[in-house]
Amino acid sequence: MAYQQKLAEKLLVLNDRGQGVLIRMNHIKKTCSDPKRRPSFLTDKATEPAVKYINRKFPNIDFRGGSQQLSSIQKQKTAVLEGLSSYYDSFVDVMEFRDHVYELLNTIDACQCFFNIAVNFDFTKNYLDLIITYTSVILMLSRIDDRKVLVGMYNCAHELSNGSSDPSYPRLGQMIMEYEHPLKKLTEEFGPHTKSVTEALLSLQMVYPRRNFTADQWRRAQLLSLLSTPATLLSPAACDTMACEYLPMEMMERWIILGFLLCHNSLNSNAASQELWKMALRSGLYVTLTRDEVINVHKLSEDHFDGIKGYSKRIADIKECKENAIANCGAFHREKRHFLRGALKELIKVLEDQPALLGPKALYVFMALSFSRDEILWLVRHSENIPKTKTPEDYSDSNMAELLYYMERLRALLSTYRYVIQRYHLQYLSQFDALLLNDTIQSIYVCPEEESVLMTSFVSQLSALNLKQLDGGEDFDLKAIRLDWLRLQAYSSVGKATLALKEYPDLAKIMNMTQFHTRMMDDVDELLIETADISILCFYPRVFEKMFSQSSEDTSMQRYLMAFPMVCAHFNQSTHTMCPEEMELMEKQTLRLCVKFLEEIAQQTCGVVLEICAEQCNLHEQLLPKHCAETISTARNKKLKKPMPKKGEVPKEKPGTESHRKDRAVVTNMDKMHLTLTELCTSYSMCSDFTAFKHILVPAEFLLSQLEQRLSKIFVRMANYNQSTQDIARPSELLSGIQAYVTGLNTLSRYITVDVARLVKTVLLQQTQPLDSHGAQTITTLYTNWYLEGLLRQASSGAIAHCPTMHCFVNHTSENEQNFKAQEFSDICELRALAELIGPYGLKFLGENLMWHITSQVAELKKLVFENMDVLVQLKANFDKPETLSNLQKRLTGCENVLKRMTIIGVILSFRKLAQDALEEVMQKHCPFLMGPIKYLHNFIHADTDIKVTMGVYELASATGMKCDIDPALVSAITNMRSDNSSTEEEYKITCLLLVYIAVSMPTLSIDPSTFYSREHGGHQNNVHCLSTAINHLSAAMFTAQDKNIQQHLKEFLQVASSALLQLGQNVDKVEIKNRDSVYLLLDMIVEESPFLSQDMLEDCFPYVLLRNAYREVHRTFIHTMG
């Protein structure tokens, strides 16, 4: 009879099916209660009359009488059928599940099965699970407020589409109506099963009270301690009820509370039942129905018993237990969590040191995981529903990170040393369990054939195991043994079984132990789900986030913070194939939590790292040369024996005094930050990456991302750019600060494995672009703006002079002092620092902006040429006729304007030359291997080389800062200026006339008193010496763009300029010839700078003696003024 009933198989299948149905019911409830996901048919105004009508008439809906109200469903009946079919099918699943459960429970009662958790553990557990799962499904069904509408509306659409109701509808409607008051109906149903249920529950008397010990009792028993009895350290952990040792407390409480609600008669008739029930009621206020759905056990029990006669004493018991739970259970579980943190820490230390102990002591690991899981789940479900109590702090735990961390470490140990565990238990199974089981079987007097075959197969399969299989990498699958053991329990637990298992407790003990050993071979992952799954946290995001927040505020917990995102990696273990819709929602929630936790850990770590870097930067800043003046002055005064400062003045501390320690107990702010950093970085050592729902998460990358974002902002902020006042930090100071930050960042790699070099390169490379990856301004943009608006604008107006001698720009001494010293931002050191900061890319961007300003000046020059076109044509034709030249010069307008604009171009190009020289030095320093080939290519270019090849090489060389005969950036800018309407011949003519215009305008410079050549600076006070740079570069670029001969046209320029300047020698007006010698020098400068002109060409049209006399005169003036 028992063989044919297949009780074991039905229990397994129905329990799995029941879990799926229960999760679907929960999903439907959540969907219908969420306005965003709620089916549209329940919210549309058009269907509102139909919804009200169905609710009122359910389940007997009159289609004829209600045709007006149901018209909206008639219009969209196909859509209703498609949209509500999954909901309707889910309710049908509940009905079918109920039918199968009824059938199985009746069969079990008919077989008069025996239940004892300590003997037939799997059979009893599956039986109790089925009862509670069924009860949970019905309670969950009753919590779906829209169940009538969903079922009724679907059936209406089916009726309107097919002319008849759905075949399942009559029974489904009746079932829904029956369970309007679910507990009342369930109690009636379970009346015949009271004996079996009570027997199964009372078997927990030996397990539940022992598992419900206080923390003090655990401590006295030295629970989970491997070191308490060193003599038994290598002995295998075993007991008569191994599976009961890690049975979840919440599961037992759910069995007891719901089981005795269904079969409450035993509470009045059996003192043991009553005592067990009270103990469960005292342990907490809520038990989980499924996911985040909980039952208020005291309220539910009181309401249920309130309508039953003769249960006033039980109601009084419930109230007393509730008061006891509110008063004591918070502190009770708080102390248990405190004990578990210490016990798990010790267990992990021992197992990490001696991982071979995982073989004999594997049971301890699963007990530790199960106990920890019990306490976490208790806290989670009560934190969301904190009762009115004087100690609400008992329902929160700022040290939860530590407990989660230890659970993750135990999981990791089981995964890492899987081979150790398998090797130990393989030998245990084949060399001990098989032999002991064989001896036990031999002692059984009467053994039916079916049971005999099963037990013989146990012995043969276990005896066949050997180490060669393990070493050969064979995958073990011992599920068949465990399923056969469940079958054997079912066969031997029926009332008239020939082999009654309760009469052979030794057999049960051996097989329960063997089952655990087989699970160590191939089912560790499933056992971890049973003992360590805390996926419920996914459904309590607010509680989970609060736990993380409390732990992150405690410095001692920061090393364990990584446990929070790692826990999320296990959330997929609670999904079920019957509810795929829930998986997508869980995946989003899991990833949201993971990312949030990782980002917050990264933010904390990043904040501490950058605080340390900022402090190091401040210390480094004290060592800058600008701060040494006071120290030098003090030392000099001491040497000269000058009076010391007054007593009231506090002497300035020297850099380094912060490192002097008079007492090691004194903790500085830097010490605290390093300690915090150590704690936070320790959390990153938990794992390099982990997977959550097939997404791989790398914690270190979150840290690098945070550092990248914040470093970019910090570096820009360190520049101290103020657009209104045009203040900015010196490039050398900014570079020094960044180097201090980089040095501080490198200390991070001592704590965790992160690529700091890659981080720094990424951040600094972004700073070489106009905008960073987030669209914010960079150092390149700030310095480009400042040099254009601050330095070069004032240089163009004459307030700042270009100083060729010192290779920088200097301020003119005047009443209107600038707010900065030009030489402090433009000397060789500063421009090298600028090149280090913004690199070739940044200087290219700076160059492009400089070219834009040059082209705007060129555009204005072209306008001036157009205005004086006729005169300039005549001047070009008659430059060798002095009288005609003189007369035509008088007709020219805007000569000063032309020279002013050319001077501005010259100033810009002079600055560009300084920047390019600095870039070349930096490139030579950092990558000489790259500069060598480029220099070779550059030197290979000669006059006959094709212009396209030449410009290609020049563009490459210019990008590295090398000096080129023709500036490729300027050529490109000039080329882009050409409009569609202008022809090449017109552009060429304008260029030629522009050179004539400049040449004939040069004599007017002698009138300007500021056209004075300063030997000290190596240039003119009004920067007209920059005309040489402007003329050479601009003419070369313009004639290259027009594909004309540069040298020929520069010769013509020399001839026109010489002719115009020679007329100054014939002028006797002292005002006009005051700075004549300084103007003559411009011709020599133009020739000196030009790669296309030579001194021979100059001497052909301008006497060298005049240049020699001019140099002597300006030097004599210099000596006189200095004398």
TrEMBL record:
Taxonomic superkingdom: Eukaryota
An annotated GO BP: cortical actin cytoskeleton organization
Biased composition range(s): Basic and acidic residues: 646-661
UniProt organism field: Astyanax mexicanus (Blind cave fish)
InterPro entries: Nck-associated_protein-1
Protein's name according to its UniProt entry: Nck-associated protein 1-like
Residue numbers spanned by region Disordered: 639-661
Pfam family, one: Nckap1
A GO-annotated cellular component: SCAR complex
Name of the coding gene: NCKAP1L
